[in-house]
Specification:
55% of the residues lie in helices and 13% in strands. It is α/β, with parallel strands linked by helices. It folds into two domains: 209 residues, 2-enoyl-CoA Hydratase, Chain A, domain 1, CATH 3.90.226; 93 residues, no CATH class. Helix 9 crosses helix 10 and helix 10 crosses helix 11. The chain is elongated. About 11% of the residues have low confidence.
Length: 356
């Protein structure tokens, strides 16, 4: 399976069509940006098909940079909201299905707001104003309204406002678009632009001389560091799993050694049964085996209680009458898992004297 198979729509000669059909995460954004660079460097014309409610703004900048660098065409397949709208608007040749929708809005930061985070949001909004202004026909006042709220567009609106270059006629009925907030909630999923809360990133954002390229490079560096850390953690998980497996094998070996020391001539099936129960309850299993003459047959059922139901004839009555046996018998009576066996032992002792 190829590295970019999950995002490739189709390849037609020297044209490569990529898909963006879910939320924009860091991993998704960097994969798309890398694919654009890879296929463009091979001499292909790349088109990016978009159908997304948006996602994280910071990694989206990587896609915007790749689109601008390599002249990528964009197509709104159905929904291009939030960061998705920025991607479609940034294309070389921009198209949109006639029934599609688009939505622009300002940067939003989840979590507690304070002066520092407000400065971060303002910094992003200034960048968004530039991006929208350079790629659309929105006036300054309209852009300010977008930043303070949001703006929904159908295909006709998007064409008129210079967000796209062409509407693709499909014959499907276009959705009615309204910018009334109560209607919007019922029509589409609202996905806020998510931004990293990294202290390093926020410090960079607060510097006046910081550029979009600086932000993009810093985010890529942080992303690569996270990937390296994830790979290191994966190696440690493998080591831990290996140690856990070795411990289990050591426990089984100990169980088998102890059980075989009882000289009960167990077959493999019986060994497996008693090893399993020994690992669950060492003390209880040894107490049960101590009072049994013959346990070389694996019992029907899957527990010690099942095993003891058919072991009455193998009970060593003399042992259970001894001082040690009486102590163990008392303990077995108090344990719900072996109480039934204790009752069988008691009956065997009683029957011994009744038969005389």
């Amino acid at each position: 399976m190829g590295k970019f198979d999950k995002i490739i729509n189709r390849i037609e000669g020297e044209k490569v069509v990529l898909n963006l059909r879910d939320d924009i995460t860091a991993d998704k954004a960097f994969m798309i940006a890398e694919a654009i660079e890879y296929y463009s460097e091979l001499g292909n014309q790349v088109q990016l098909v978009v159908n997304t409610g948006g996602g994280a703004l910071m990694p989206t900048l990587s896609i915007l940079n790749a689109i601008e660098t390599y002249g990528v065409d964009t197509h709104n397949e159905g929904m291009a909201a939030s960061a998705g709208a920025l991607i479609v608007a940034s294309g070389r040749n921009r198209t949109m299905n006639d029934f599609g929708l688009m939505m622009f809005h300002g940067a939003q930061l989840n979590g507690k707001r304070n002066k520092r985070t407000d400065n971060v949001v303002n910094k992003f909004n200034e960048s968004l104003k530039g991006i929208i202004s350079n790629r659309t026909k929105f006036s300054d006042s309209e852009i300010n309204d977008i930043i303070s709220g949001e703006r929904w567009l159908d295909s006709s609106d998007a064409l008129n406002m210079g967000v796209i270059d062409e509407v693709v006629t499909t014959g499907n009925k276009a959705l009615e678009v309204t910018n009334d907030i109560s209607s919007i909630v019922n029509k589409a999923k609202q996905i806020n632009i998510k931004m990293t809360d990294s202290n390093e990133m926020q410090d960079l954002l607060l510097k006046k001389e910081t550029t979009i390229s600086d932000l993009n490079n810093k985010y890529k560096t942080l992303h690569e560091s996270r990937e390296a850390l994830t790979a290191e953690m994966s190696k440690k998980d493998t080591v831990i799993a290996d140690l856990e497996n070795k411990l289990k094998q050591a426990d089984k070996k100990e169980a088998l050694t102890v059980i075989n020391s009882k000289d009960l001539e167990l077959d493999e099936t019986a060994q497996a049964f008693w090893v399993e129960n020994y690992l669950k309850d060492k003390e209880g299993t040894l107490k049960v085996m101590e009072g049994m003459k013959v346990v070389n047959k694996a019992p029907e059922g899957g527990s010690i209680t099942d095993a003891l139901k058919n072991q009455k004839e193998t009970t060593d009555v003399d042992y259970w009458e001894s001082e040690e046996g009486q102590i163990n018998l008392a303990n077995l009576k108090n344990d719900s898992s072996t109480a039934s066996f204790a009752m069988e032992v008691q009956k065997s002792i009683t029957n011994k004297y009744l038969s005389k």
